[in-house]
Specification:
Order of helices and strands: EEEEEHEHHEHEEEHHHHHHEHHHEH
Number of strands: 12
Structural class: alpha/beta
Helix content: 40-55%
Number of helices: 14
Shape: globular
Radius of gyration: 21 Å
Distance between the termini: 21 Å
Largest sheet: 5 strands, mixed
Length: about 375
């Protein structure tokens, strides 16, 4: 599998100004594991994960999770301040992970569109409204004494799934926001500026009263069908029909208070068959099913792997409800059994980006070694 142009690894400057490709010869820090281990990070809308990836054993270890220093923790901070907080946090977590020593190499899977030059074009779930593009790869390379590569989180996650997917597939994440990447012919379908793979910002509700997206737009799929979108919908439904809410399992799980509804409670209520929570979720999945149907109809991709904290927390019931909406809406040329075969759930963990970016770095290391031997 090759890296698409927009996420292709590049040579980045070291802290001393020299250039080194990913996987360049360096000693590891005291806490990094084997001599060839990489420090890998996955930064999403709410959680920053840091771990060690060993390319020899393909093992991920020493995973640490901390809240992202983004808008969820600092909702009143302007975009520029949040961007600085995030950069500082990544540098700090790398240093903590390696006990202050230089890592072999650092890979960052980041929740947002990224250009070929390592420029983060937007990060609605991390710092909200667009703001100025952030040269994250360059900034990290200047502060971390190691080669650094930054790629989109779903592009990284593809490296986890590509080994087991012989056919083209669309990877969807449903967590703080919604994102997707289509992988076909060994490449992700993006342009050099990182455009593409952002179904979460498709306007599926054009009404003036549509829910707000984290990016500031209205009616975006991510603002409606993401974990945050479902949470907002559940709270609205509880306020609109307090008597029905009071009789629900969801109410029992959150003490009868609509304001105390959270995503774990919604996921648990749906898994337990609560009609109130299930109806709320199904209403949001209609829009996601429309998006999947459009991708299928437009380019004929027949595999949709759904991952992300919220979807996986709901589990098999999430897939069942989504397939039900796809069947109800129809996928041109497919019967119900074929539609059921379109959708599967990803691995039930949150290590997709960590494992994926580790495998990506291992591939680049191997390529560099082969080129050096020629």
């Amino acid at each position: 599998m090759t890296i698409p142009r927009s996420d292709r690894l590049r040579t980045v400057p070291d802290a001393d100004g020299s250039a080194a490709a990913v996987g360049g010869a360096r000693g590891t820090g005291g806490g990094s594991g084997s001599d060839d281990a990489f420090t890998v990070l996955d930064l999403g809308g709410t959680t920053l994960r840091t771990g060690t990836y060993d390319p020899v054993t393909s093992a991920l270890s020493r995973v640490r999770r901390v809240p992202v220093e983004g808008m969820a923790r600092h909702p009143r901070d302007p975009v520029a301040v949040l961007q600085q907080r995030v950069v500082d946090q990544i540098v700090r977590e790398v240093g903590r992970h390696t006990d202050g020593a230089a890592p072999q190499a650092v890979g960052v899977a980041f929740a947002g569109p990224i250009s070929a030059s390592g420029l983060v074009l937007a990060a609605p779930t991390v710092w909200g409204r667009r703001g100025d593009p952030l040269p994250l790869g360059q900034l990290l390379a200047e502060r971390i004494d190691a080669p650094v590569v930054v790629v989109n989180d779903l592009t990284a996650a593809a490296w986890r799934y590509a080994a087991t997917q012989a056919e083209p597939f669309c990877l969807l994440t449903v967590s703080s926001g919604i994102g997707n990447k289509v992988f076909r012919g060994g490449e992700v379908l993006l342009d050099a500026d990182g455009h593409g793979g952002e179904l979460g910002h498709w306007v599926c509700d054009p009404s003036p009263q549509a829910p707000l997206c984290d990016c500031g737009g209205r009616g975006h799929l991510g603002g409606i069908a993401s974990g945050r979108g479902v949470l907002a919908a559940a709270r609205r439904a509880a306020a609109a029909d307090p008597a029905r809410f009071a009789r629900s399992r969801l109410a029992e799980l959150c003490g009868g208070r609509g304001a105390d509804i959270d995503n774990p409670a919604i996921a648990a209520a749906v898994r337990q068959g609560d009609a109130f929570a299930t109806e709320v979720l199904r209403g949001t999945l209609t829009h996601l099913a429309q998006a999947i149907g459009a991708v299928f109809t437009a380019i004929g991709v027949c595999r949709y792997i759904v991952m992300g904290g919220f979807a996986l927390a709901v589990g098999d019931r999430y897939r069942e409800l989504l397939v039900g909406e796809l069947v109800r809406l129809g996928c041109f040329g497919l019967d119900a059994d074929a539609v059921d075969g379109l959708v599967s759930l990803g691995h039930a963990d949150d290590d997709h980006g960590l494992i994926g970016v580790g495998r990506l770095l291992a591939d680049r290391m191997s390529l560099r070694s082969r080129e050096g031997a020629q």
